[in-house]
Amino acid sequence: MNHEPRTKKAVILLSGGLDSTTVLAIAKQAGFEVYALSFKYGQRHEIEIIAAQNVAKSMGVSGHKIAEIDLRIFGGSALTADIDVPKERHVNPAHIPITYVPARNTIFLSFALAYAETIGAFDIFIGANAIDYSGYPDCRPEYIQAFENMANLATAASIEDKGKFKIHTPLIEMSKADIIKTGLSLGVDYSITTSCYDPSPTGTPCGKCDSCTLRLKGFKDNGMEDPVL
Fold first, then answer.
1. Is 181 helix (H, G, I), strand (E, B) or coil?
2. Could you tell me the residue range of the domain that residue 178 belongs to?
3. Using one digit for the tens of pLDDT, what is the confidence trace for 68-90?
């Protein structure tokens, strides 16, 4: 009797933003059975959680976990402390802005690794980008490679040779315009995503923070207006 090979599972870090939504579409296009993971981590707003839930539902993920951790106990970022979000700033990747959340991707990837190991997945997708980004150190290729190496040293699944973990960063060397173009080709509905660091209580983006600036430029470079504005 012939048996169809089982679809490989993958864990997707899903913030409800433009990048992570595009990554989810890329993973599905690649044939993965996707499981999304989002975080309530003490961020300034929970609008992105609603967006993540909407994205997960509309794109038909096999599972969606929302982990609750409180990074406000440390603060140190405009996203987790009572610090103003910089607006209309010239984005310079050589300068790490106050919107950087200390060790956030390390924390998120660690949770994703635990989720992956428990469901028998060896593929983790994250929307890290080292081209059109705010200069966060945990978005660089060398960091991703280091975490992948650690994952294969620190898990029973790897040590027992059940598989090797791979951290996928399909957007790492793409411009925001190319990310949007790719997502549109895969049918991504960007109107249900949110990227703003400092939205209004109703979710309207400010249009002036780093994330909004990069997003707006990406749509403009594609000859389009941002559908959330």
1. helix
2. 9-221
3. 999 999 999 999 999 999 998 77
